Amino acid sequence: MAVPVTVPDATAAPAALTERARPVSARHFVRLKLRVMGNNFRGQGWRVAMFVGGVIGGLWFAATGFFLLAAPGLAGEPKYALMVAAFGGGLLVLGWLLLPLVFFGVDETLDPARFALLPLTRRTLVTGLLAAALVSVPTVAVLIATFGLVLTAGMLGGWAAALVAAVGVAAGLILCVAASRAVTSAFATMLRSRRVRDLAAVLLAVLAALLGPLQIVVLAAVRQADWDRLAGVARIVGWTPFGAPWTVGIDVAEGRAWAAPLKLLITAAAIGALLWWWSRSLESAMVGAAGGGTAKARSGPVGGAVRQLFPRAVGWARRDRFGALVARECRYWWRDARRRANLITIAVIGIFVPVMVNFGGASLSTADGMELATPDSSPVLASLSVIFVGVLASVTLANQFGFDGSAYAANVVAGVPGRLELRARAAAFSVYVLPILAVVAVVLAVVLGRPAWLGLLAGTLLASYGVGLAVNALISVLGAYSLPETSNPFAMNSGAGLAKGLLTVLSMIASTVAAVPMVVAAALLGDVWLWLALPLGLAYGLGAALLGTYLAGDVLDRRAPELLTAVTPRR
Amino acid sequence: MTDEHPALALRGLAKRFDGKVAVAHVDLDVPAGSFYGLLGPNGAGKTTTLSMAVGLLRPDAGEAWVLGHDVWADPVRAKQLLGVMPDGVRLFDRLTGAELLAYHGLLRGMDPAVVDQRAAELLDVLALGDAGRTLVVDYSAGMRKKIGLACALLHGPRLLVLDEPFEAVDPVSAALIRDILHRYVVGGGTVVFSSHVMEVVERLCSHVAILADGTIKRVGTLSEVRGDRSLEDVFVEVVGGRTATGEELAWLSR
Questions:
Q1: A162 CB contacts (<8 Å, ≥6 apart)?
Q2: Residue A188 in 3-state DSSP?
Q3: For residues A188 and A487, is the Cβ–Cβ distance under 8 A?
């Protein structure tokens, strides 16, 4: 059954030869979104189950956030109210901005490209899509959580403050959604034109790089426990779009009522600017999707067909089924924007997160100012941080067949054995990931100033990556889902985006648990482990990957047609 | 030896989607060496039937044999004899035409040298050689059909199953595809293809089956099914439905 493409009331438009078309409002978009979400669940018990799981996760987050944000009010501590509001709210906006880029993708239940042929003004489309985007589990969760701010404002400043805070929270929520849409949309448009993709990689790297210094600054500030200074920072954040909508209630409560309209104005201006930016990139996204990619005449082919298929990096592979699968996957990891975005994420996060974690206890400023302090990391902490990298890298394969979509039919028709299929895919992915892991290990060892840890780091990375491959081989066969056939690398299908995020989290937890022996060994064995970690980690990871693909390959042999159905997008 | 078996035999194939019957009960025998047209209106279950016949979609009931090999019990042997071009299914389209052919050839366990030689010939004959390093995703619809056909033909299958091979193909390419398929059948191969274009079927096929509402309504050689009428008349009669407008849509003629 086709997803309804037209807005119900807009279908009356053909009669407009005589009548005036009825105006389309945001209400229609919201109804359309609810309808699409509802249709998605029909006859799909597990989808309902996943959605319920997502709702529970959202409620848990909402409750936690609510009590954190309401704490100053409940405890009667006005001193911290502004700080909690500014930093909590700022983190929220930052999360909406960055998380879709890095992890979860943006819910594209209503794909803008589908509206390309309808006579809608850009203004109608943007407000409509924004309204539809506001109807989702995460937004409801955030609304509940930020109600804690309203409570705080109310307890400290009475009804007037609560009312202003409520207005601020609503505006803040719209700001969050508008920001995430604008950023992902702009990013997707950039990634679509192949020439600019490298620039996009740099941008993402810069964004992630900004997280590092920010955290160090925050940690340094916390360590010095200089509450006055922190309050000063909070006051400044409160005047930026990041903090403005969340702090208006506190301002009123603390007797700075004049600040409220100014801050709301700042928020409104930010929302307006974001929506304008979004509408610009929306237009090019719609045109791009309708017009197809730009065909470019490349230089003539060299050599036979087989030689063209194999990239230089896998020139070692035999010219047989396994080699063909590896070569094709390698090409895809580079040519498919969605996959390439994942690789970039692994590279950037893989380097920054361990560095940040291991510097967590260090302070930046020493007596003579500029010198970097010695990090007080330990083998256990280092192991834990790189396990995260290995697990993050392998979780990319959790829906590896979803990347293929219906094209996977070619492999089913050819009758590719399951083990061969899974091992070739893991091998091709490793062509990209193993060099990244090597760089991570070396950079980390150098930055920490502990070259002797190189074996420990590399061994732990390999072990965690290997067990991750095993876990995700199984998950990719059993929990596959279809990705929309858009070129937006951040698009998710259907309204169950959060639930699919849960599957990712589940996979990461399972992989981490399987990698725990490496941490235990690091804690118990002492210096011997520095030597043993690399060979044992390599053996453990390789063994796990072989075992995992052995078991999952059997399942795949039995389930190949079902898997194909699962990853084929429904139209 | 295998020639005693029909090229494709379907017995009682059935499939439901969400409680809705897509294919009710299909029996079909495709004789070896025939050019078989599967006709049907949109939504008749053509794609579903062919998908079950080639092992892409597991049937709720029924069996399928390719030259005597059960597709669902002995898939490896059956799939070796099969060349398939599905419709509405993407190719691995971020490869160039040559790369895609090499992938399919090696996936079928062919010798690399043979793959190179056949791929070059196919690209040349199908006029896809000029595309050079263009990715298949940037091909036109007709070019995509042609490269899909080339992928299905590459390993020299005994049975070709093509879903809508003439959809969205320009007349020149269609003539080319017809010629290739004709040579293939003359050379001893068997072709089964689905279509709703009567002219193509009348021109090419030795046998015809008309599928509607998930069951076979008419089956036999072209002359048996057609009788002394045109195939279109028979088709419309079998399928039913209206072919002319009445009082409605008056506003169209203003």
A1: A150, A151, A153, A154, A249
A2: helix
A3: yes
DSSP A193: S
Q: How far apart are CA A30 and CA A23, in angstroms?
A: 15
Query: Distances from the Cα of B168 to the Cαs of A252, A318, A439, in angstroms?
Result: 66, 38, 49
Query: Whole-angstrom Cα distance, residue A273 to residue A51?
Result: 33
Among chain A residues, CA nearest to B110: A320
CATH class of the region B1-81+158-240: alpha beta
Q: Which residues of chain B have pLDDT under 50?
A: 1-2
Structure tokens at A150: 């309203």
Closest CA to A386 of A340, A326, A341, A450: A450
* Tens digit of each residue's pLDDT (9 = 90 or more) over A75-107: 877 778 888 888 888 888 888 887 766 554 566
In angstroms, the Cα distances linking A555 to A415, A511, A551, A561, B172 are 14, 19, 7, 11, 45
- Alpha carbon of B135 to those of A98, A330, A331, B69, B91: distances in Å? 32, 15, 11, 36, 11
- How many whole angstroms separate alpha carbon A329 and alpha carbon A347? 18
Structural contact between residues A437 and A393, judged by C-beta atoms closer than 8 angstroms: yes
A164 Cβ contact list (under 8 Å, min separation 6): A153, A248, A249, A251, A252, A260
Closest by CA to A322, choosing from A406, A401, A419, A402, is A419
Query: How do the domains of chain A map onto residue ranges?
Result: 45-290, 314-361+374-567
Q: How many CB pairs under 8 A join A and B?
A: 138
Which residue has tokens 């709702």? A55
pLDDT at position A294 over 50: no
pLDDT digits (tens, 9 = 90+) for A176-228: 999 988 887 777 666 555 445 555 555 665 565 566 566 666 666 666 656 77
Shortest CA distance to B132 belongs to which of A325, A340, A337, A303? A303
Quick one: B5 exposed, middle or buried, by C-beta within 10 A (0-12, 13-18, 19+)? middle
Rounded to a whole number of angstroms, the distance from the CA of A479 to the nearest CA of chain B is: 18
B223, B195 contact by CB (below 8 A): no
Tell me, yes or no, if A305 comes closer than 8 A to chain B by beta carbon: yes
Nearest by CB to residue B251, choosing from A17, A299, A404, is A17
Question: Closest Cα partner for A171 from A82, A260, A283?
Answer: A260
pLDDT number for residue A495: 44
Strands (E) across A196-345 are located at none
B residues 115-154 lying closer than 8 A (beta carbon) to A:
115-116, 119-120, 123, 132-135, 137-138, 151
Residue A59 to residue A61: CA distance in whole angstroms: 5
DSSP for residue A366: B
On chain B, the residues whose CB falls within 8 A of the CB of A485 are 90
Mutation site for A-interface testing, chosen from B50, B77, B90 by largest number of A Cβ within 10 Å = B90
Rounded to whole angstroms, the Cα distance separating A298 from A289 reads 22
Candidates A294, A308, A568; nearest CB to B102:
A308
Place of tokens 């309401």: A70
What are the residue ranges spanned by the domains of chain B? 1-81+158-240, 91-156
Q: What is the pLDDT of residues A467-523, one digit of tens each?
A: 999 999 999 999 888 876 654 444 544 444 555 777 888 899 999 999 999 999 988
B123: tokens are: 């690209």
Q: What is the C-alpha separation between A567 and A508, in angstroms, rounded?
A: 21
